[in-house]
Design brief:
By secondary structure, the chain is mainly beta. It is built from 8 helices and 34 strands. Strand 6 and strand 7 form a beta hairpin.
Length: 682
């Protein structure tokens, strides 16, 4: 089949344009459900443990007012709760005193009264010294490889030791939307130069930024020797047990240790040793001719990751044969990893950490324990996929000397990879919660070998085909686990589950369970996980749903027990961050199913207003809010794919953000701060 060349029809079920779905993830939502495993259903796992009131034919109850209903899309309209009397106002916690931004569809970044904003860097702005000025009508691959890439997603700000005037900004460039990049673009016949421009617009950017002397917020981009572009042709080093394996050897790399490029880099994380982790997500859409593969074992492996198309959307295989699976069947095995980049060493090849498993990584975030053990949390961003963590066996070195930093970049090559299972039930307070277990998949050893805990899989097979291995151990099928972030103070882990409109809908698809409580879920939820003994190396945990997102008036939503008439409606949580001053959770959204632009929201995690959600900003029409960075005196977001709506293109723009006039829409990084110079959130 060739799902990548569908007509551009409006996708009212997902609240995203057909163009967006086509270029971001290869129409993953129109593909068959990939996870057809027969691991136990929720009812089989917890048979006999749920009370009668907790299970109805439509799913679990969330709240005492009624049964679950679909959140739009492929099911009935949400069930409205009985209109309660207005609740008594609850004073906001410190840091939540700003006036919430109202939902809107403006072609602008909208921030609260009393706040200012600035575009820091946009697609095409110079990165390396001597880079040419952006000219959308005369772009070349050579130019793009020196300029800020397209569709910025994850964002990190890395302090420079001993320097209070500069910092390093690192951004992912997740994917390219060619109709918004090239005049008169013909999707079925892109030119070789257009293809190479797309390759150069992927990857990552590193730029030095000047810091305001009074607040420390980034104010401008600097020309600096540390500035760097990483693209789809930059050499990467494979590390861990899969490095050198026959399944990653290619004609161009017979040793199986050097990969050109990184693709579809979504979210990520920063490490205490000042490197950046980046997740390779929807890598399947870049490879052609998986549908024509004859070998049944290889074909099944491809299909589980979505590598079963014909011609690829961007036609990269026409200029580089490694993207043709019939010509180079192992190239796809070299993508789908977590990569680590050292922003302080432009000459160093970034690493692909195979010990963290291969799947559609949203990102990876780490926590280092007092004894140096490093724990990484990860989500596999597709319907019915899984949540993972990795616990290192080696210990981080606390020093900042080059030798210490080099050693710490090997920590994610040695340790044990786990996958999560969840059991639980609805609670009387209207939420749900229960217990969970991290089940071991594979141990990566210091000698470069791997020990499998999964029957029928070798160690390297677990790492290469992690989804199939997780199927075998009975992992819980989740509603698109995206960002998974440990709180820097409490250690509680928060997981954004963006949506899953196929749950309980398509024949054979898993039905609702306590952690994923709604059929046809188009609004998503946020899960809170506390590991036993508050020890991130523990293999058991307690969990609860902090938010069941959607219209607060609907009976199937839950806002941490906080009165729902005092919250901002939130839909499709994606990326997570924490306020360093007050400890609040900040959530960016992707695909708001409530007919408004995406935004950034603050959520109280403790005290009388636990569960209060306040919208802080909205992004322009058609855009997604990505990569939030919350600093003491500012917030930063990536505005991804502005104007990406149906029937729009560079020639027929739906947005002129950020430059206005008749300028093309350009993904960009925005800084927001208080106009009076005070602390960021009040």
């Amino acid at each position: 089949m060739n799902r990548r060349l569908l007509p551009l029809l409006t996708r009212t079920d997902h609240r995203r344009s057909a163009t967006h779905c086509r270029y971001k993830c290869g129409d993953a939502c129109d593909a068959p459900v990939r996870n057809r495993s027969d691991n136990p259903t929720f009812r089989e796992v917890v048979s006999g443990t749920l009370s009668r009131r907790s299970v109805l034919s439509a799913g679990l109850v969330v709240g005492a007012t009624g049964a679950l209903a679909a959140c739009g899309g492929g099911g009935p309209a949400p069930t409205a709760a009985a209109t309660p009397s207005p609740s008594a106002p609850v004073p906001p916690s410190p840091g939540l005193g700003f006036t919430a931004v109202a939902p809107n569809t403006a072609d602008a970044v909208t921030v609260p009264e009393g706040y200012a904003q600035q575009v820091l860097i946009r697609w095409g702005d110079p990165v390396v010294t001597g880079a040419p000025t952006f000219d959308v009508a005369n772009q070349t691959a050579e130019r793009q490889a020196q300029q800020f890439g397209f569709n910025n997603d994850f964002l990190a700000v890395i302090p420079i030791p001993g320097d209070t005037t500069r910092a390093l900004l690192v951004a992912n460039h997740e994917y390219t939307t060619e109709p918004f990049m090239h005049p008169a673009y013909v999707a079925e016949a892109p030119t070789p130069e257009q293809i190479r421009i797309g390759m150069a617009a992927h990857g990552m950017s590193v730029v030095a930024v000047a810091l305001d002397p009074s607040s420390g917020r980034p104010t401008s981009v600097l020309q600096d020797p540390l500035n760097r572009r990483v693209t789809a042709t930059t050499p990467f080093t494979l590390t861990g047990p899969v490095a050198g394996d026959p399944l990653v050897r290619t004609a161009a790399d017979p040793e199986g240790r050097t990969v050109l490029g990184t693709l579809n880099n979504c979210a990520g994380g920063t490490t205490p040793w000042s490197t950046v982790l980046s997740g390779e997500e929807n890598i399947d859409q870049y490879f052609a001719n998986g549908a024509a593969v004859a070998d049944p074992v290889l074909k099944a492996r491809y299909e589980r990751l979505g590598l079963d198309g014909e011609a690829s959307e961007r036609r990269w295989e026409t200029v580089d044969p490694r993207f043709d699976l019939l010509r180079e069947p192992n190239e796809a095995h070299r993508f789908g990893w977590v990569v680590e980049l050292d922003p302080f060493d432009p000459a160093a090849a970034p690493r692909k950490h195979t010990a963290l498993g291969r799947f559609k990584h949203e990102g990876a975030t780490v926590r280092v324990l007092p004894d140096g053990t490093t724990v990484a949390y990860m989500g596999d961003d597709e319907r019915f996929e899984y949540a993972y963590k990795f616990v290192s066996s080696a210990k981080a070195r606390p020093g900042t000397a080059p030798a210490d930093r080099a050693f710490n970049q090997t920590l994610l090559d040695q340790g044990t990879l786990y996958v999560a299972t969840f059991t639980g039930e609805a609670r009387p307070d209207g939420g749900s919660g229960g217990r969970g277990e991290w089940r071991p998949l594979v141990e990566s050893r210091p000698d470069g070998t791997a020990r499998s805990f999964v029957p029928g899989f070798s160690g390297t097979e677990v790492l290469l085909f992690t989804r199939q291995a997780a199927d075998v151990v009975g992992a819980t099928k989740m509603d698109r686990p995206e960002d998974v972030e440990p709180h820097p103070v409490t250690g509680a882990v928060y997981m954004a589950l963006t949506n899953n409109d196929e749950r309980g809908v398509e024949p054979g698809a898993a039905g609702p369970d306590a952690a994923n409580p709604r059929p046809a879920n188009t609004n998503g939820q946020v899960l809170e996980l506390v590991e036993d003994r508050s020890d991130p190396t523990a293999t058991t945990f307690a969990w609860s749903l902090l938010l069941v997102c959607g219209d607060p008036k609907a009976a199937d939503t839950y806002y941490g027990g906080f009165p729902k008439d005092q919250v901002s409606a939130i839909s499709c949580p994606d990326n997570l961050a924490f306020d360093p001053t007050h400890g609040h959770l900040w959530v960016s959204t992707d695909g708001n199913a409530l007919d408004a632009n995406d935004g950034l929201f603050a959520v109280s995690l403790a005290g009388a207003d636990r569960g209060r959600v306040k919208q802080f900003l909205t992004v322009p029409r058609g855009a997604e809010t990505c990569g939030p960075v919350i600093m003491a005196n500012c917030a930063m977001v990536c505005v991804q794919h502005p104007g990406e709506v149906d029937d729009a293109s560079l020639d027929r723009p739906a947005s002129h953000w950020p430059d206005g006039g008749t300028s093309p829409a350009r993904p960009a990084v925005v800084v927001v701060w208080r106009s009076d110079g005070g602390g960021f959130a009040s």
